[in-house]
Design brief:
alpha+beta; 8-stranded mixed beta sheet; 12 helices
């Protein structure tokens, strides 16, 4: 034991970088146990700088019995702050959790925000970690939620991997069944459930950087071993840590150590840890482009849609299986057409002539005869556009001629990812 009752554990400082994800095939069907085909996109990254500071021994002891019983505890002098997060996505720029916030079925705060419930849902399955550590997180970079690339699941993956690292003493991905029991517990608390495909791909694709020092962390609060309520102010968030919201990231990000990869995800029935396999798709560079719709698709609402459309979910699963059997460029237009028909019957892609900006985008793509499909939960996020085998140049011309009804830019200017950048050339 060191001075001031501090344990022998050393303060840990590290960075975790999580690539974005995009579901190509298997939306909704994955909830029934069907396979999902998921793209890992390191061009877009969530970057978190973390400091884990050992709690004084007396504070560890006060936390040991804090969650015993079913009675709700109120904040008091022994109920310390155990988790602090800074992010431009947060109202006010910062948020703190007390240990009691992790112990109660219902939040103690009457004004509990969506952000509070989100982070409490992530942290609560790892109470034993917070008995020993105070954790501070600075989200220095992320990407717009409206892309549907998993900005929320990236945080869940980053933090669960961090908590597992502190619990097991290694950055390696170990004890996966325990990890996944807790990840699914968080998903249930945050959004009522989910397949976990996004957390799976991002948890496997992320990486840690241990070569950080206090001097690398610009916010003075991130250097303080004894954080208090009055030290955490929204105006303390460093101006340089602005969330990267532009579609085109800087060269350092594009040339990162992460690589574009495609994964097959399958939930193994009652087994906690899902099945995840990296795929080799020889024609991936021909798969076209992903285009921003600038319409946010809410996952919680998507789960409600799924609950009404089990037959459509099975049809999505069948499409994913078809793609896994024949992942050629020539097969894409046919599969995309079937996907649009399923989604329109399901109500997650507007029928022709419907009102709204998203419907206008869909109608324009159909009018140009393009091969396209919605991604993820639909009703927004990104659209996947693939050139037809017979008319590759026509597709390129159409994207340059179409105006986006929301941004008023040409569709070609709203491309957020071009598969040809992987290798080869198409658009």
């Amino acid at each position: 034991m060191g001075n001031n009752g501090m344990s022998n554990w050393e303060k840990q400082i590290f960075r975790v970088t999580v690539p974005a994800k995009a579901m190509l095939w298997g939306e909704y069907g994955v909830l029934l146990g069907g396979p999902a085909v998921v793209l890992s996109l390191p061009k877009y990254q969530c970057v978190c700088d973390l400091i884990a500071t050992p709690n004084p021994t007396d504070r560890q002891n006060s936390h040991r019995d804090y969650c015993d019983g079913d009675e709700a505890h109120t904040h008091n002098s022994s109920d310390s702050i155990v988790f602090s997060v800074f992010s431009d996505f947060l109202k006010g720029g910062s948020l703190q959790l007390h240990f009691s916030d992790l112990c109660n079925a219902e939040p103690l705060r009457n004004d509990a925000s969506r952000d509070f419930l989100f982070f409490a849902g992530i942290c609560s399955p790892w109470k034993e970690v917070f008995k020993k550590w105070h954790i501070t997180v600075n989200v220095t970079q992320s990407f717009p939620p409206s892309l549907g690339f998993g900005s929320s699941s990236a945080l869940l993956a980053a933090l669960h991997r961090t908590f597992a690292r502190l619990a097991y003493g290694t950055p390696e991905f170990v004890h996966k069944n325990v990890f996944w029991e807790r990840a699914f517990e968080s998903l249930k608390k945050i959004q009522g459930g989910g397949s976990g495909y996004d957390v799976a791909v991002q948890s496997e694709s992320l990486w840690f950087d241990d070569n950080l020092k206090d001097d690398n962390l610009k916010d003075d609060n991130l250097k303080d071993d004894t954080l208090k309520d009055d030290t955490l102010k929204s105006d303390d968030v460093c101006e340089n840590d602005v969330v990267q919201s532009n579609a085109v990231q800087n060269e350092a990000v594009q040339n990162s150590r992460g690589q574009v990869s495609v994964w097959k995800y399958l939930r193994n029935g009652s087994d906690a840890a899902p099945f995840l396999q990296k795929l080799n798709l020889p024609e991936l560079s021909k798969f076209g482009v992903l285009v921003a719709s600038h319409v946010y698709s809410d996952t919680a609402n998507a789960l409600v849609t799924y609950s009404r459309s089990e037959n459509c979910a099975r049809a999505h699963a069948a499409l994913s299986e078809n793609f896994l059997e024949n992942s050629t460029f020539e097969n894409l237009p046919c599969l995309m057409k079937i996907s649009r028909e399923i989604c329109r019957a399901q109500g997650i892609v507007p029928v022709l002539g419907a009102q709204g900006a998203f419907a206008q985008i869909c109608d324009a793509l159909d009018a140009y005869g393009l091969a396209w499909k919605s991604m993820g939960s639909g009703n927004g996020d990104c659209l996947w556009i693939a050139a037809t085998h017979e008319n590759q140049q026509g597709t390129k011309a159409a994207l340059a001629a179409m105006k986006h009804p929301i941004s008023q830019k040409m569709i070609s200017e709203e491309i957020v990812f071009d598969f040809s950048t992987i290798g080869g050339s198409l658009l």
